[in-house]
UniProtKB/TrEMBL annotation:
PANTHER family reported in the protein's UniProt record: OXYSTEROL-BINDING PROTEIN 2, OXYSTEROL-BINDING PROTEIN-RELATED
Biased composition (Polar residues): 284-295
A matching Pfam family: Oxysterol_BP
Gene that produces this protein: Osbp2
Chief location category: membrane
Protein name: Oxysterol-binding protein
Length: 709
């Protein structure tokens, strides 16, 4: 298949060239790619082996086809538009030469056969003995000529078939590029017209202009509110109704002083006692205190002094269109991007940044109730998006085998390790251990598509969290992130979708809804709502807030069915106590707008540290040069690293094909600190930490680390 055809495969398709093929037992096969896993069962061990062999052969063929079509191994330079336009001439010349070659083949075969017949006739004539010997010698030479000609004819025929097949493929690619260019030109023209009309409409509406001015003045230098950001979006933007797919509910706050445990005539699915909210929920009470108090207390403890700023971001101009025109419909990880679009952090460091509000999990350890603990886990899952609201820059794609450690065991009670375990698809494994009573692990694969007007980023893979004392095991997945106004207007980011958090021990659940932004909605921008329920479906808590500011939790006293909405859905009315704040975002440091809008934690992630592994992201030279403001040197270094990685990948694929042809097993790339196992909870093939990193760090024995920088 061509790249264009591969982009429109059926839902549920697995790309064999990047798939992992494993066997569980004598009859079962596990086929996985990123966050998708298939379990196949054969009737017998012999049949299973036949399937494994067939899949391995198909995988090798898919790798060869991918290499023949294009060597887009992540950030290679694509063909320019002028190169594509010049394909027509060579294609025509090649076609004419192929016709000439075919004609020559026919002539050689025709004249060779005629020569053979003539010599045979001469041999049958009665001639003197000397003439007969000469004719015999000529006949032998003609036979050699015929054999050589036949070999050349066969080789030419093979070349002809190969050239014709490649010619058809080039024609398809050229036609696809033409169609993409035409569609893109039409989109740009339409966007420009709509942008101009929006500007004229904005100038012609004094009320709107004054409102926008007041919003900007209130922000005092901060980024505009979501409504101001989205005003640059054109009228064809896809909008959604709030709570479109989730069950709608209404929350009514009750007064605990007027609510009595006895004599209440309320009946419904869930009832609680207001006294419980004030007496037993001591963890909620402590969380209602501002998190800044806790951070202030931490400052009193002796700890390493870490940096609070990085060099300001240079103001380099860049022709966005010259790069984006080659990106339509492609995976973001396969697009060559200069560092101008990046921030000086890798994807492994961005993944580690999810731990900024780790104290939520420290508080969750103290919860006696599993539903109460679920509230803190839900708040933690939302808090990981708070750093993305202003962060529209792209993190560096990690190199295969790149690692990142964050050892805060003495200061904050946890240590974290990430490793890039796959390059296509890009996948990172993450493991966090906290001495305060919890362990978190995940393998995240990033799928991303550039759609012309917006960029969709879809994280695939499950996040696991286990508390040591209770054994509660929580699993959830991330929502889709969308970057809007890629070509025209101001960049802004939104989160949309649903998160289902499941406690696989108690079967408690929390359904969180990230409402996509709508210009016409009256809801608070970046709104998140959800309900925590137990294994029987009984609702206990209502979660509400925004993913960029705070999350609150309200204890449910009573629930009942309300009126039916216009869509035919019946609303649930929850009577709750006053909400308590579980999480609130830390303020950004001073001058954050000139430091890529990094938080206090993000500013320290790339700070140089001693004794780390030689594969650590802090030692990546292009990323360090970019942070220092030397972007031209960073671009040169980035190309060197990517070319080095491509050479290693090509050598590894050649070894795989060679081993397959010889009938040998080839394991491919094996992660250094993680190993693949079938998860007992989700049934997916996932990379889990196998140990050894921190012991190697203590000994300073990094001999097993690859040379990737």
């Amino acid at each position: 298949r061509t790249q264009a055809e591969m982009a429109h495969t059926c839902r549920g398709t697995i790309n064999l060239s990047t798939a992992h093929i494993d066997t569980e037992d004598s009859c079962n096969i596990v086929l996985s790619n990123g966050g998708r896993t298939y379990h196949l069962k054969a009737n017998s061990e012999v049949e299973r082996q036949r399937w494994v062999t067939a899949l391995e052969l198909a995988k090798a063929k898919a790798i060869r086809m991918r290499n023949n079509q294009s060597d887009d191994s992540g950030d290679e330079e694509p063909a320019s538009q002028s190169d594509k336009s010049e394909l027509h001439g060579p294609l025509k010349t090649l076609s004419s030469k192929l016709e000439d070659l075919s004609t020559c083949n026919e002539l050689i075969a025709k004249h060779g056969a005629a020569l053979q017949r003539s010599l045979s006739e001469l041999e049958n004539l009665r001639l003197p003995s000397e003439s007969g010997e000469k004719i015999k010698a000529v006949n032998e030479r003609a036979t050699l000529f015929r054999i050589t000609s036949n070999a050349m004819i066969n080789a030419c025929r093979d070349f002809l078939d190969l050239a014709e097949s490649h010619s058809r493929k080039w024609q398809r690619l050229l036609q696809h590029e033409r169609e993409q260019r035409i569609r893109l030109e039409e989109t740009i023209e339409q966007l420009a017209k709509q942008h101009n009309s929006l500007e004229r409409a904005c100038r012609g509406a004094p009320g709107l202009a004054s409102a926008t001015t007041s919003i900007s003045s209130t922000a005092k230098g901060s980024v505009q509110s979501a409504k101001g950001e989205a005003s640059d979006e054109d009228e064809e933007t896809e909008y959604f109704d709030a709570m479109e797919d989730a069950p709608a509910f209404i929350t009514v706050t009750a007064d605990p002083k007027h609510h009595r445990r006895s004599g209440s005539n309320l009946s419904g699915a869930s009832e609680g006692h207001p006294d419980d909210w004030n007496l037993e929920d001591s963890v909620f009470e402590s969380s209602n205190q501002s998190s800044y108090n806790e951070s202030t207390c931490k400052d009193l403890l002796p700890k390493k002094r870490r940096r609070t700023r990085i060099p300001d971001k240079p103001n380099y101009s860049l022709n966005l269109w010259s790069i984006m025109k080659n990106c339509i419909g492609k995976e973001l990880s396969k697009i060559p991007m200069p560092v101008n679009f990046n921030e000086p952090l890798s994807m492994l460091q961005r993944l580690t940044e999810d731990l900024e509000y780790h104290e939520l999990l420290d508080k969750a350890v103290k919860c006696e109730s599993s539903t109460e603990q679920m509230c803190f886990v839900a708040a933690f899952s939302v808090s990981s998006y708070s750093t993305t609201v202003h962060r529209t820059a792209k993190p560096f794609n990690p190199l295969l085998g790149e690692t990142y450690e964050l050892d805060r065991l003495e200061e904050l009670g946890f240590r974290s390790l990430c490793e890039q375990v796959s390059h296509h698809p890009p996948a990172a494994a993450h493991h966090v251990y906290s001495r305060r009573g919890w362990t978190l692990w995940q393998e995240i694969t990033i799928a991303s598509k550039f759609r012309g007007k917006y960029l969709s980023i879809m994280p695939l893979g499950a996040i696991h969290l286990e508390f040591h004392s209770s054994g509660n095991h929580y699993v959830w997945r991330k929502v889709t992130s969308t970057v809007h106004n890629i070509i025209v207007g101001k960049l802004w980011i939104d989160q949309s979708g649903e998160i289902e958090i499941v406690n696989h021990k108690s079967r408690d659940k929390c359904q969180l809804k990230f409402t996509p932004y709508s210009y016409f909605s009256r809801d608070v921008p970046r709104k998140v709502t959800g309900v925590v329920s137990d294994a029987d479906g009984k609702a206990h808590y209502v979660m509400s807030g925004t993913w960029d500011e705070k999350m609150e939790c309200s204890k449910i006293l009573h629930s009942s069915h309300g009126s039916t909405s216009m869509e035919g859905k019946q609303k649930t009315v929850y009577q709750t106590l006053s909400p308590k704040v579980l999480w609130r975002k830390y303020p950004l440091p001073e001058n954050a707008e000139n430091m890529y809008f990094f938080s206090d934690l993000a500013l320290t992630l790339n700070e140089p540290e001693e004794r780390v592994a030689p594969t650590d992201s802090r030692l990546r030279p292009d990323q360090r040069l970019m942070e220092s403001g030397r972007w031209d040197e960073a671009n040169v270094e980035k190309q060197r690293l990517e070319e080095k990685q491509r050479a290693v990948r090509r050598r590894r694929e050649a070894e795989a094909v060679e081993a397959l042809e010889e009938g040998k097993d080839y394991e491919g790339y094996i992660p250094l600190w993680f190993e693949r196992k079938v998860d007992a909870v989700t049934g997916e093939l996932i990379c889990v930490y196998k140990g050894g990193y921190w012991e190697a760090k203590d000994k300073q024995d990094w001999s097993m680390c690859p040379d990737i920088f």
